[in-house]
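Annex B, item 7. Sequence and structure tokens for protein A, then protein B.
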Amino acid sequence: MRILLVGAGGVGGALTAIAARRDFFDLLVVADHDPVRAERAAATDPRYVAAQVDASSAEAVTALCREHGITHVMNAVDPVFNMSIFEGAFAAGADYLDMAMSLSQPHPEAPYERCGVKLGDEQFAVADRWEQAGRLALVGIGVEPGLSDVFARYAADHLFAEIDELATRDGANLVVTDDDGNEVFAPSFSMWTTIEECLNPPVVWEKERGWFTTAPFSEPEVFDFPEGIGPVECVNVEHEEVLLMPRWVDCRRATFKYGLGEEMITILEVLHTLGLDRTDKVRVKGVEVSPRDVVAAVLPDPATIGPRMTGKTCAGLWVTGTGKDADGNPTGPRSTYLYHVVDNEWSMQEYGHQCVVWQTAVNPVIALELLATGVWKGAGVLGPEAFDAVPFLDLLTAYGAPWGQREQ
């Protein structure tokens, strides 16, 4: 396997640290628009090579793939670049993986009731082309989407006879402080992506209605997260799980709620009110800039905040329905939370990367290993739900980050 990693930021850097301990690939080209960042990440393993790339150019991605004989393209940049990387990989004859799908567009007339362009629609529109070519685009294989989608497959195959709801619930108790020990606002993940998913209309799926939307931050609920994180208020957020799970897993409802916290919600609402969430460029003193790019640029780089961060992050799937025994016989009502918790102290000590980007990066590395060894196989545009969950979860434990299961 010869991998092109597009993006050497927080997640890309963590991905190289994790992959360096595995032997399933021959070459990993670390490509970024910033050659210094690519070279820094590539310096950690002799199988790594640094390169510069314009992720907005499908032709540039194709050329880099051909130059290095790439078999798999791993997309680790903001999803605004998804389609150029996706198309560049196909043109080069390589398989493709990403951690977030092609972007959505709200319905022009009823944004909080009906879907417009959904997450992943552009990619699924060409699924037949990928399948006919015998090529795989494995989409949404980060932590969320990604791990919770694997949990959905596991729950359907091994725990439930019938599923009422697949409810992704993510939360954390992370705190970032300045040099004086004062708590500061510093998002642990890409602010560009956070704005995109949190201010767009959230999507819900129901068997009787299909996909529909609600208002941002709707339907708040308090969810008690495991391993000391505790109760966190969670709200509806647009996310790929809701668009992926019903395609492969039979359920009556699919939702995604995230524990944003009051401060984050307030900041996002203010950004929206001021128009600072916009991606179209405005002219400022003769220079054209995107307001959202400016917001992302003035905040701390998520890759750098690890030493000043404490706490844990949790990604998981709360499944309700009718359970089943080992023979597949229904056993009555069941409510189970499948989860993965990472402590920032552990990830920093073990890998030198903060817990949120590490948790995101470990899942595509596992997926690449399963593809390299032939345990996972497929063609077309597929989500994690399309594959056997057990080998993935076994490897997650083998990587030193075991998952958990709690009856609710």
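Protein B:
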Amino acid sequence: MAKHAYLSASASERWLKCPPSAKLCAQEEDRGSPFAQQGTDAHELCQYLVEKALGRDAKDPTENLTWFDAEMMEAAEGYAAFVMDQVSEAKKLCEDPLVCVEQTLDFSKWVEHGFGTGDCVIVADDLLHIIDMKFGVGVLVSASGEDGTGNSQLKCYALGALDTFGDLYSIHRIRLTIYQPRRENVDTFELTREELLDWAENVLAPTAKLAYEGEGEFSAGDHCQFCKVKAYCRKRAEQNLEMARYEFAEAPTLDADEIAAILPQVDQLVRWAEDVKEYALTQALAGTRYPGFKLVEGRSNRKYSNEAEVARVVTEAGYDPYEKKLLGVTAMTKQLGKKLFDQLLSGLIEKPQGKPVLAPETDKRPEFNTAEKDFMED
């Protein structure tokens, strides 16, 4: 496999933190998923609507989209409207801003064979704006990145755009935007051209060199989520098993400080354990035998072999085989579309207080007041 497959901008958060993971992942076969195809369809639709809004010749792709539905159309329409708002803002800086849609961006000056595709790139005097559409709902994506210096994927794109268009416009500011409609997340981060280039020279380039050669230190963390070898990575296993070696005080029960030391690791530990179980099952189905384990048939529930025939028989017997149930909020929104849903039902929707959960003190949500805490404060 060619080395250029190692260092994609979309995976940069991982290989910047764990350089040798790039080479390991490049050796693994790509496994497509319905979520990936859904994202591809959404991007095709977004591209069409933006090109159309810009007055360019574009072909409607909807009849060829596997996952097209009202929710996707609404998300794409919102994205296109947002992009056009940003184009209008750019026109205040210069009369002829450059607007590139699904633009190939080459940042190989800093990353060997580094390139990617920018969903929307707006170039104007003073400002370069990178807009990235995220249709996924599982992970909330931040424009500022985990370290608060900017999302690494978007910074790679910005470098490619700066390298290509920087001589045509006098660019001083770099704006990065994540547009994630299904999470109601439109997040923007801004940095200077100097800050971007400093990061490129002192962080991106040297780390990419290590990653390209398969060198550097392995590191486990949240960035492991989309790693192809996460289930059998030794470093990740060592880090998660470290909790089992935690030296607790000689007492029959754990105190608050000891529980506080465990809490930050619990979610990662559970994810790791599930990844290992899923990988082991996949390998066992392929013929791998694990000492002390065997494949068995799991539990299953009874189901109808022919639902239409069941309905007919029960109806002829004088009974109603169907139950009527009001669609949930998400399903109703999908059926009506968000605009009509809001128009018809905005006064009939309430959001109950969420169930309390423990979160780090760095979490942006306000602290939950229990009745006991309120009483103590009073």
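Comment on protein B: The longest strand covers residues 171-180.
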